[in-house]
Amino acid sequence: MSRSENIFQPHPLLRDLPLWKRRTAHMLVAVGTSLLATACASHRPSLSDITREEAIAKERGCKPVKYQRDFMAIEVTATGSGRQCLVQDLVQRHAWSIAEGFNERGSPARIVTFYRATHVDLDLQGHLVSSEPFENATGVALDQATSEASLSHLDDFPQHMSVRNGVIKTPGSRGVGIYLGFHKNFDLSTRAYASAYEVMPEDQQPLGDQRPYEPGKKIGFIHPWNYQPETYYSVDNMKVVSGGRGVIMVGANSVLRNSTIEVDGDTAVYLYGPNTLVEGNTFIVHLNPGNASELPAALKLRDADGAIIRNNRFMVKNSSGQEATAAINLLQSKDVLIENNVMENTHQLVRKDAESTAIERSHEPGAGAGNLSRPAGMPPP
Q1: Is the pLDDT of residue 148 over 90?
Q2: How much of the chain, in percent, has pLDDT values that exceed 70?
Q3: pLDDT digits (tens, 9 = 90+) for 295-346
Q4: What SS3 string covers the chain?
Q5: How confident is the model at residue 103 (pLDDT cuts 50, 70, 90)?
Q6: Where are the domains of the chain?
Q7: Nearest to 122 by CA among 134, 113, 131, 133
Q8: Are 67 and 49 spatial neighbours (Cβ–Cβ below 8 Å)?
Q9: Distance between CA 139 and CA 143 in Å, rounded?
Q10: Which of 48, 176, 231, 306 has minimal CB crowding within 10 Å?
């Protein structure tokens, strides 16, 4: 058999086609493979850089986290426990499967997944985690198995999970930067129905009793949740830019600190559970009408008894000059301490439902409530 004949040996699916069509198909495969390799290489960091960062991480006692596969979405997993370090940027690229009729295979669902993990300190080391050019993905999240944990599966229940020192970009109205929460209607869940990025419908009161299924409605029943065991989730020193929600955390004793959270809509962060600490952050909302919520606020807390919200800045950025309704929204949250916060172009600092209570104070004598409203562009005092 000659070399030219060997090159154009037909694929079984192409065997009945004329020779010229078979040759055309093979040439398209060659061209497509070349384009795919180019697309992959254009966003691939230097292997030497990755190897160097991996060696440094190991020297520091930090388990390296890196992308392992080609021609698929750029996704990684953090498994087990202990300190783990991302050693490369995770930026997506188009990847088409010719065998599947040029189907897109590059779009991610979750870029960084905690897989059967607990007690993990994930250090992004300044790296970028991005779903661009795709929309509606999640940057960092629990995997499906742990996020559906119930009281009967506490061996898989994730606790003491932290994400820090990095940048996350997740465009799209259903994009989420960091989602440390739960799915479905299991014992530990407060969801009213399964959703890609919310633990229950925003701004609705929880349902304590079982509710029979009604045709045409998604709500079946709900188990009330007492936020036990305590989760101790933490997000620190992050920059998150998202089309949907920047950060969602569900559980007791969560911490959001020293981060900038920017979203297209009116809600940047949603936190569920008692004893939450929100400190030293900047919240930026653009008030895109396509991302509006029922009770808009940059920071929303539910069931957050004993929460502390201090030394944060709430900002509105848009070309229309529109103002936000509220900076903070409290739902069924008692004894929340709110102090030394600054808001710009926002009507009120705190909106509360009937069951929520808050204390506004300052450590500075004579400073009143200690929370300031300042026109946009005015420098801090």
Answers
A1: no
A2: 66
A3: 889 999 999 999 999 999 999 998 777 889 999 999 989 999 999 999 999 9
A4: CCHHHHHCCCCHHHCCCCHHHHHHHHHHHHHHHHHHHHHHHHCCCCHHHHHHHHHHHHHCCCEEECCCCCCCCCCEEEEEEEEEEECCCEECCCCEEHHHCCEECCCCCEEEEEEEEEEEEEECCCCEEECCCCCCCEEEEECHHHHCCCHHHHHHCCCCCEEEEEEEEECCCCCEEEEECCCCCCCCCCCCCCCCCCCCCCCCCCCCCCCCCCCCCCCCCCCCCCCCCCCCCEEEEEEEEECCEEEEEECCCCEEECCEEEECCCCCEEEECCCCEEECCEEEECCCHHHCCCCCCCEEEECCCCCEEECCEEEECCCCCCCEEEEEEEECCCCEEEECCEECCEEEEEEECCCCCEEECCCCCCCCCCCEECCCCCCCC
A5: confident
A6: 19-373
A7: 113
A8: no
A9: 12
A10: 48
pLDDT tens digit string along 26-58?
A: 565 555 554 444 444 445 556 678 889 999 999
Residues composing the chain: 381
Q: Which tokens sit at 356?
A: 């929520």
Chain segment 2-32, per-residue pLDDT in tens: 444 444 455 555 566 666 655 666 565 555 5
pTM, two decimals, is 0.78
Superfamily the domain 19-373 falls into: Single-stranded right-handed beta-helix, Pectin lyase-like (2.160.20.10)
Question: What tokens appear for 78 in the block?
Answer: 């953090």
Name the amino acid, one letter, at 376.
A
